[in-house]
């Protein structure tokens, strides 16, 4: 081994060690950086449109002021409501447990007793083991355990309120600098990464397209459906609107069925426990105002663009929640977008990819 090779290996080793150390320094702020990137993808088009005006485009002070205002409004209108919704979810989960316990132990007791007997007979025929099975108590046990877990999470969040306020402040600052210096940061990234600039730009273009589709075609549509089901539940004076709205948002990513898996059982429960006509009206209203969006609005948003199959997004969000906690809501789709963009780089040359639109059958 020559002296030059030894020096090269030593330099690479030092660089690797420094990279690890820098990663450890930035690690506490990774969540803030990732959330800031996501929020910037949402508000950056607004920022660019405003700053393109003749009076603002040539004035750095006005551009910086506009970025600061948009960053503050984003925190005020998005982040704070998310924390409020988490708090309400924790409260409603306790109410939901009591409501479900009442349903399982009164209204449908006979049906569950028949089902319990059938399950017991099936187990005995298969294994020869005789045991008592109570499906209603098992459901209640699962919900109670999840209720305790979420209550602990919310309690932990509230106990660290000072850290959360500091984190929100850092998030606003990070978002501000991403808006004002995105081009500078991108050029700096292109200069330090040992990859051809064409590949980096193509990757950035594909990643932006994919995230744009995920945000507009799925997250915003899911948010719309969650808000509509919340309003409908309030109008019909149905309990636990925050829980069912959150479940509707998650269900909106399920292929074919979507939000129907939430509002249809609710309409059936309303028909069985309250009034048949009221249940039918609820189903009609929810079907028109909630699920129609899947058939009309979503295709308009994602037409002629890169299409991500909703099943992939559904598993990305659920898997992200399991692997990374609440941050998995962003990390799951983010990693999926990064993988998709990387595969597009491999499949298409940089010169072609900048001008072509790729469609994947949904």
Commentary on this structure:
With 362 residues, the protein is mostly helical. It has two domains: 25-192, no CATH class; 194-356. 84% of the residues lie in helices and 0% in strands. It has 15 helices and no strands. It has helices at residues 3-26, 30-51, 54-57, 60-107, 109-127, 135-159, 161-192, 197-235, 241-251, 260-273, 276-295, 297-302, 310-324, 328-347, 350-353. It is globular.
Number of strands: 0
How much of the sequence lies in strands comes to under 5%
What percentage of residues falls in helices of 4 or more residues?
over 70%
Largest sheet, if any? none
Oligomer: single chain
Low-confidence stretches: 353-362
- Taken together, the total number of domains comes to 2
Distance between the termini: 54 Å
SSE order: HHHHHHHHHHHHHHH
Globular, elongated, flat, extended or rod-shaped: what is the shape? globular
Structural class: mainly alpha
Separate helix tally: 15
Radius of gyration: 25 Å
Average predicted confidence as pLDDT: 75
């Amino acid at each position: 081994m020559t002296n030059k090779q030894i020096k090269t290996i030593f330099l690479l080793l030092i660089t690797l060690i420094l990279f690890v150390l820098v990663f450890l320094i930035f690690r506490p702020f990774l969540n803030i950086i990732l959330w800031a990137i996501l929020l910037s993808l949402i508000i950056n088009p607004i920022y660019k449109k405003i700053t393109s005006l003749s009076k603002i485009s040539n004035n750095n002070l006005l551009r910086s002021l506009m970025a600061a205002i948009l960053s503050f409004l984003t925190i005020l209108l998005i982040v704070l409501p998310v924390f409020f919704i988490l708090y309400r979810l924790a409260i409603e989960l306790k109410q939901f447990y009591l409501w479900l316990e009442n349903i399982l132990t009164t209204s449908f007791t006979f049906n569950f007793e028949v089902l319990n007997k059938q399950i017991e007979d099936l187990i005995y025929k298969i294994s020869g083991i005789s045991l008592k099975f109570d499906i209603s108590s098992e459901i209640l046990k699962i919900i109670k355990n999840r209720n305790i877990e979420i209550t602990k999470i919310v309690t932990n969040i509230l106990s660290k309120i000072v850290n959360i306020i500091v984190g929100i402040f850092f998030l606003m600052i990070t978002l501000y600098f991403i808006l004002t210096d995105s081009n500078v940061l991108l050029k700096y990234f292109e200069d330090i990464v040992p990859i051809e600039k064409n590949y980096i730009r193509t990757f950035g273009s594909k990643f932006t397209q994919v995230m744009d589709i995920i945000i507009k075609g799925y997250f915003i549509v899911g948010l719309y459906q969650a808000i509509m089901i919340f309003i409908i539940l309030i109008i019909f004076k149905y309990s636990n609107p925050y829980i069912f709205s959150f479940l509707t948002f998650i269900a909106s990513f399920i292929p074919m069925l979507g939000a129907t898996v939430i509002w249809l059982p609710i309409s059936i429960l309303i028909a069985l426990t309250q009034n048949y006509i009221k249940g039918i009206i609820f189903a009609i209203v929810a079907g028109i105002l909630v699920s129609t969006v899947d058939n009309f609005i979503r295709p308009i948003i994602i037409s002629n663009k890169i299409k991500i199959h909703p099943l992939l997004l559904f598993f990305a969000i659920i898997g992200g929640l399991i692997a990374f906690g609440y941050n998995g809501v962003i990390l799951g789709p983010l990693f999926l977008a990064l993988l998709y963009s990387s595969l597009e780089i491999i499949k298409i040359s940089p010169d072609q990819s900048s001008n072509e639109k790729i469609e994947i059958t949904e």
